[in-house]
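Sequence and fold:
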Amino acid sequence: MSDNQLPAESEKAVTQARPKTEKQTAPGDKKTGIKLIAPAKASERSGEISFVDMPREKSERLDVLVLNPPSPDGDLFLRDIARVGRRTRDGIIWPQTALAQIGAVMQKAGFNVDVVDAIGLGMTWPDFEKYMWNHKPRYMIIHATAPTLTNDMRSTFVAKAVGTVTMAIGTHVTPMSRETLESYPTLDIVIRGEPEMSILDVAQTIDRQVQIEHADDTVPVGNTSLTAPWRKLPFPDASYLTTRGRFMGVNPQLVARALRETQGIAFRNEHGEVQINPDRPFIEDLDSLPLPLHHKLPWQKYKVPIVGGPYTFVLTSRGCPAGCRYCIKHVTYQASVRHRSPEHVLQEMYMLKEMGMHHIHFEADLFTVKKEFVYDLCNAIIKDGIKLRWSCNSRVDFVDEEELALMKKAGCFLIAWGLESGSEAVLKRARKGTNPERIRQTIAASHRVGIKNWGYFIIGLPGETVDTIQQTIALSKNIPVDIALFHIATPYPGTPFYYEAVQNGWINMEQWEDYDMYNHTVLNYPHLSSKDLEYWARRAAREWSLRPGPMMTFMKGAGNPETLGQLWQIGVNHLKWMGGSFLQRT
């Protein structure tokens, strides 16, 4: 038997397994005597795929989803439109007010909107996928950061399955627009810089183009009760789903044609090449923005050490004139400062009070950047008698004791200070604009008026040495800060520090997720390796926290069992984080 022959039993089995077809027989081959079977029609061939047009989709679709994507591993991540994500050791759940602000702008324009903070909700990836198939949003805006970049882009992959136009905002995708779009084909558009007006322009422009190009082959979508008559635009239906080069949603070529001249974005043009359009001017009047959709956030889940929860952010201004070389403000709102009016801020405070909020944090690049605004807001709060405790951020060179006393009277109970270093040389090189003596004076003044102090320190700024690190540790222990956090300096893309680090070869990374900063750093100096910096950050935290004063502060902050449980978990997390290097070095 040759290799090509089958045993009689096998040949019989194969013959029986063949599909039976009723075909007319052709005349036999005169040479062989074998009867020939006429070819079957293409649609009747065994294994042939028949193309079937999907039925038109009649169900309503959500217009806009604004999303803080699920965590990659269930851990809490701190991220915001003006901040880069990092894991938290402190039990903080970060309010997504910036996303609620985007949602408010879109809703005011007539779109049906949902805001989903998957991290605050504890939403898993399977939960998110079910949400997407149930709501099928036409547009999705995600907040993406370097430490979670691939994870965040997973949401765009899911979105494409339901025909969603995908957009990303944040401090990473703005300076890395081209690289992000080239790496993640399911992301359609990067929104660069201040997002609200660019996002609105994108959605309205694409909707108009859809109306022009597909008016004869579409079905209405959206919540018509929330949509003005001129906004009842058609949208491609489910017949665009998978077959013959068609798909559910808007064709990329249509998106490319629509967005040729839209400011403040990066996208793929009609040739598939990344195009970065001119930046959009900043919003001049922040009072023109509607109040954020706080009620769509899981605000009851938001918590922070000492305060507990719930709490949330209230934006007061955008922009900071300071020149700190490491600050992400170089990417976001830059040096020009724009304020909301005190009256507009109070309106939001009353709304939050009615919702049941008792604590808020005034979010800004620098809350105390303008003394006149601080005085006007504090006096307005005192006059109106609204009982909301609040915190804010500040610099030691932008406030004095008289101002601090007024802030305390108006309800301020905690200030987060960017102190950075105990070395005057390091501060000067970073262009911080202050010195250790000014730090001591201002923190002491804040303590005297009864405000708690939260000090942020950075280990590893350019010019750092073991000696300057020890100066920072000494300063942290000799000023009245109630909480001290020690981070390793991070050269975020778009900052002057990043370009300096790239030029000098100080960055050691394989992927953007290496920017996590939870267990390691991408920064690697010739005289201070990544492991050295990690060791000293842990050692600084250990030396500051394992003293009677900080322990008493945390215990005093535990006013109820829930807060005590939070503080206990924070302590456990810190000990785990600090413990590894303690066993390795002395």
